Amino acid sequence: MTTLLARGNTALRAGNYEAAIALYSQALAEQPDLGHLLRTNLRLVRQRLLGNNARSAEGLAQYFWRLPLDCLFQRILNAIQLEPEPPNLAATIYSGEQALAALLAQQSILSATPIVVSIIMPTYNRAAILGEAITTVIQQRYPHWELWVCDDGSTDHTAQVVAGLNDSRIQYLPLSKQGAAAARNRGLERARGSLIAYLDSDNYWHPDYLGAIVTLMQKCPGRSSIYFDYFEYHCDDNNIYRLKSFTCPKFNHEQLLERNFIDLNSFAHRRELYDCFGGFDEALPRLQDYDLILKYTWLRDPLHFPYPLNLYQRNAQLQQITTVHQHDQSCETRVSQRVAEQLQSGLPRRHTRRLQRVTILSWDLCRNHFSKAFALAEALSREYEVQLLSFDFFDENVFEPLRTIRPPFETCYLRGKKFPEFFNELDAALEAIHGEILYVVKPRLPSLGLALLANQRYKIPLLLEVNDLETIVNIPDPQAQHVSLALETANWSDPELLIPYSERWSQLLDPLARALPVVLTHNHALDAHFNQRCLYMRNIKDEQIYDPRRFERTHLRAKLGFTPEDRVILFGGLLREHKGVFELLQLLEKLDDPRYKLLFVASQSSPEQAQLIRKKSDKIRVLPPQDRTAMAGINLAADLVILWLNPAIPASHYQMPYKATDALAMGTPIIANDISDFGELGRQGYLRLVPFGDWEGMRTTITEIFNNYTATTRQRLAGQRLFQRQFSYSAARANFELAVNRVLTEPLGILPIAVRFTEAFAEFRQHLK
Predict the structure, then answer these.
(1) What are the CA-CA distances from residue 121 to residues 19, 128, 265, 271, 515 (Å)?
(2) Which of 434, 522, 654, 734 could bond 469 through an S-S bridge, CB–CB 3.0 to 4.6 Å?
């Protein structure tokens, strides 16, 4: 039998389809009881031969051949009626199997330590079919798993079925009848794995499902969840299986709010999500999976493997929850209420590892980058004792828009100097630190370097946020290149090292930043720079200030000198050429419409700002730095924010401007180009995308924004929801909780890179004596 199959596949790969058909037919005749292994191959090869689609034929045969001979997943899939065959099914299976094989080939090189997956399976009186679902777990080729069969008060012989499978990795948990959500939660409470997967007793997994989860999550350590496509099939009263669908949409949280397109049996996540945000809502008899998936994809999009690896059946004979409780509308109401509460107050958190004191380190307090450290200190101060420590390197005092704010947290501001005088300031900073954890903003020497010294001295764990590629952030040049230097090769006589915030220190600290246990960022380019291992922490704003309900738009526009007919295009922040400020001037000329006005709000002085002021045009206004309340109002008063970052400048790809946060919060429409995270946000409908320099596309898009009120309103509201989920202070607290949970699961103590840095820094200090 095996020989005939092998010969058939060899003939198929060689393009000899007639021989392949003959060999498959002979194998089927000799062992008809294993016909489920061959019928689909045979039928599809014949179809492809007639349709001359050799690639699909070969792919499908390889797909069925590579599965084990006793594979239950394949047997059930073969039983599904495929007449007529759905379009693209063969191509999807072929592509999926190719992608899966390539993915699993990387598994052995990603981690030498086995990762345990905990599988949660609730069940109630399903003894007749339970064994098949568990069999598809036992048939997983990834062996490091535990299965919690959470028996929700069954009165049949469920316990005997589980015991009869005789696998020590299966844990049977008898419970009183409380519902599937409670049963799942009891399993989650006992789960020991770092990854969690779910399988109901009427679903079936591809034998490489767990292997795919583990490999993808290892490849992207910064992501916390993942979902797969699945075969959905319906079983009628005559036990005839009919395929209904086999693909899922790309992830889009707005679409997820409208309907659930992710099946819990095809969804997995790191345990950290449960540890931080809890499990299932036990008051929901239905939609409990939907509620959990909304919660676990709230802060960051999940990974998506766009190929079906699960069989999901709908069968009225099984008394499934979806059918039994389909008329209970209270579930929809409760889920909607929870979404509204989370938009208002953020995710509910368990606080399993509650800290008391946090020290935030920012390398400088004078410029706009200090805004992030200050905002995070404010956000966390509502739940923690926060200390913000920073240095004044430019003798300008606190960044101007923040000077009048009386912070609700402790500040420790020290002078910024050159070396060797700066050694004394670092020593004073080390003495002043009193947090139980360090949150470092930017991998600069006065922030990350200080944190590494503190870790070596006090064993304080640390988190690093990277929101720019520091080695090129100040180089608006298309030829700029990132350079990383090994600490051991440092030339202590280099005069650049006398400046604590110099590019040379950034080059030396970059490889150290990559070695830290937990790093956070705000866009995918920086995440890629750090090997896909970053958690997310967006550029945040206080939702209590950035609330459109606090302002009256007509009054704000009049105060700024704009009429109701004016169409105000806003740019706020540091006015730099590579950020598209001069393109906005060209746009004004190309629009050639007196209604359009440009409003620039500078965060600090720059040569470009002086050039704009010299224009002296009645269509251009340049305002000095504004405080937060004023900026919130200005964004609401504006009609449009355009963020055209020049893609020829490397630094542009690593930025996510604060002005995007302001616009999202206040519901101001945004146009951007496909750079940083703008591309994905645009494709998900939060903003509009126009390629850099596409003037006609820009003109058309601007016209659509003003003319299509319905579409613009929908996008504005989606953007405000995105702000609440990911860019607000409540989102910052939830992301901080996730990062703290992760760093505290690592072995605590002195980091090896802290030892290396401390020893090297001592050499530098000795050299300057």
Answers:
(1) 45, 15, 10, 16, 37
(2) 654
Q: Which residues contact 600 (CB under 8 A, 6 or more apart)?
A: 570, 571, 572, 575, 581, 609, 612, 620, 621, 622, 623
Q: Report whether 580 contacts 643 (CB < 8 A).
A: yes
d(CA 658, CA 665): 11
Is 637 exposed, middle or buried (CB count within 10 Å of its CB: 0-12, 13-18, 19+)?
buried
Distances (CA, A) of 167 to 134, 135, 162, 329, 510: 10, 10, 9, 41, 47
Low-confidence ranges of the chain (pLDDT < 50): 1, 34-37, 49-64, 320
CA distance 190 to 553: 53
Task: Choose the final residue of a domain: 103, 125, 143.
Answer: 103
The one-letter amino acid at 705: I
Cα→Cα distances 485→464, 509, 510, 653, Å: 19, 8, 8, 22
User: 384 and 243: one domain?
Assistant: no
Contact present, 384 and 356 (Cβ < 8 Å) = yes
Domain region containing 55: 2-103
Closest by CA to 54, choosing from 91, 105, 26, 79, is 91
The answer to whether 109 touches 324, Cβ cutoff 8 Å, is no
Say whether 454 sits in a helix, a strand or coil: helix
Distances (CA, A) of 465 to 7, 296, 646: 56, 22, 24
CA atoms within 13 Å, Cβ hemisphere of 117: 25
Query: What distance in Å separates the CA atoms of residue 48 and residue 413, rounded to the nearest whole number?
Result: 73
Determine the length of the chain.
769
Rounded to whole angstroms, the Cα distance separating 546 from 630 reads 10
Q: What is the pLDDT of residue 355?
A: 87
What's the Cα-to-Cα distance from 43 to each of 26, 142, 243, 718, 728, rounded to whole Å? 14, 31, 17, 47, 55
Measuring CA to CA, which residue among 33, 32, 34, 24 is closest to residue 3? 24
Q: How far apart are CA 43 and CA 36, in angstroms?
A: 12
144 and 44 fall within a common domain: no
231 and 376 co-located in one domain: no
Q: What is the pTM of this model?
A: 0.90
Position 56 scores a pLDDT of 46
- Looking up tokens 């890629």 gives 528
For position 625, what pLDDT does the model report? 87
CATH of the domain at 686: 3.40.50.2000
Q: What is the pLDDT of residue 1?
A: 47
Q: How many domains does the chain have?
A: 4
Residues 6+ apart with CB under 8 A from 640: 567, 568, 569, 570, 668, 669, 670, 671, 702, 705
CA-based R_g, the chain, Å: 29
